[in-house]
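Morning, I've got a small favour to ask if you have a moment. It would help a lot if you went through both lines with me. I owe you a coffee for this, so here goes:
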Amino acid sequence: MVVAYVMVKAHTGEAGQLRDDIEAIDGVVSAHIVAGDVDIITKVDVDSPGDVKEIAADAVQALDGVEDTHTYIAME
């Protein structure tokens, strides 16, 4: 299994709906609205690094309200 964290910067006022949309994506374990440089931290648990790419770069980036993302793959 590959665990990754996707940090999502949302457009102003979009965090709540965006979190719900992200949580509906297969492979997403959780998505939390947070204070700080990003608006949502998403935990992904999938079979391969390619699956992380499909979620982070293809699915999350395609959602309305996403301004930017950064993805971090857990090393342990």
